[in-house]
């Protein structure tokens, strides 16, 4: 099989050149194996039994994915996208159906390199019952009560520390991403994980190295070396921390994992998973919220007069600008989704950022930012057994603490239109530079 | 088969016949019962499967576990001291061949 792996974990796992994670349709089925169902009326599309969206352009997705999502929802909410070698599911109903059935839509996305990269599979790439054993270890740490009692004071201390940094930069120089969102998210996670003595820069480097490893399709040895060096650094720290927490348990995730009876490799893999998955998204939420409120000042005014609205601000922002745009699944057998036949072993992209703007679920105003919209469930944290383990932590640390405190400290906080901002990505989408100013 | 009735505040009732061992949340979600979200897939992590159990069935239920107790403090609809439960923590069959619950107006 040709080694054409476009889909790979941006967090650095799976994705070197021998991993063949996605079978192309021609490898799975004879052409015309099934009656063409709902097909675009083009010559080439007529040969495969499912809609093909050959117009989807990865570069357009990276600069602004929402127009592509809208067209996919309208024309083919379950479609084979040749440029990504995946079926993209872009409707709310389709994404939700995938999440309900982990037997058919497995999170155990193939790619043997994953084990090489981590030493073990983390929970995100397992299905129940194996998944549940890992997940049960950290759930108690991440339920709302422990977050509120043990961690909210720590999140507040971290936020205040970096508000000082922002203040030093001043309203003409401050970059909300660089000076606040990034270090706050990183320090929060260091504390929540219980990685004593790890510095913010070190966390960031680890996560960068993992991501670089992910993009390592060309098998660049230097990238592997960095990735492995970072893993070794972290493993060395865990070698000491795990026995320490077995003697001195506390409210951190590593302590919970260390005392769960799971083997070392398993504990380590899940700590790495959390380092990769628990930092960028909260960071992006800080900047996304300020960006959204700067463009909806009448809503901002209401929030500033009513603290009870902050949870709605978080929920609406994570829906409207979802930091994780897509995550992967793989079919374990032939199946039908939204009227489209999918072969066994098909790579599926669950495009939650698109589902989160589906008018069939959110009504005609789905594309607008409105913190007063009727409460409706969204998929920004996924759903089902892989529902983000850190969702309460993120809502608290960012939605209730980091962002409200920033508005409290800097009256008139807003994006600074005189300096350029930058956005990047679609699988993970966020602001990479956000100049802000205040009165 | 066991029988579950979901009563909605508008008077509608969804009655489901399900296999023993099925949780109220799973039954509702697979059958598209309105008002039960079940976001976390049954891990007692989201509290979006909140139900009010009708009093005549309360005695047949298992004790409220520690995790469930904690999450019942986070329901979107008001908690009822005796009748509130998480739908994902209650399975039918094995002494609970039938149950009726009221669905709260808010889950998120
Ligand atoms: C450290 C543990 C992790 C491992 C071992 C892992 C493994 C993988 C693998 C093997 C793939 C390739 C799937 C394919 O064939 O397309 C993948 C893709 C992906 N993973 Fe991870 N992953 C990890 C952490 C995470 C985390 C924490 C997230 C986000 C919360 C995440 C999100 C994704 C996404 C969005 C893709 C799809 C990328 C694309 O197709 O372009 N991963 N992962
Ligand atoms: C706004 C911030 C966040 C967003 C939008 C987000 C989003 C997500 C999504 C969409 C998934 C599911 C991926 C899949 O099913 O393939 C996920 C899983 C996960 N997230 Fe988050 N996340 C956020 C913050 C966090 C934080 C702060 C932590 C750490 C405490 C965290 C830890 C995890 C873990 C461990 C998983 C894997 C859960 C499992 O497989 O059962 N996340 N996240
Ligand atoms: S389904 Fe999440 S708590 Fe019951």
Automatic annotation (TrEMBL), chain B:
One Pfam family recorded for the sequence: Fer2
InterPro entries in the record: 2Fe-2S_ferredoxin-like_sf, 2Fe-2S_ferredoxin-type, Adrenodoxin-like, Adrenodoxin_Fe-S_BS, Beta-grasp_dom_sf
CDD domains, per database record: fer2 (cd00207)
Cofactors required: [2Fe-2S] cluster
Keyword Ubl conjugation: no
Record domain 2Fe-2S ferredoxin-type: where: 2-107
Alphabetical keyword list: 2Fe-2S, Iron, Iron-sulfur, Metal-binding
Family: Belongs to the adrenodoxin/putidaredoxin family.
Name of the protein this chain belongs to: 2Fe-2S iron-sulfur cluster-binding protein
Organism: Arthrobacter sulfonylureivorans
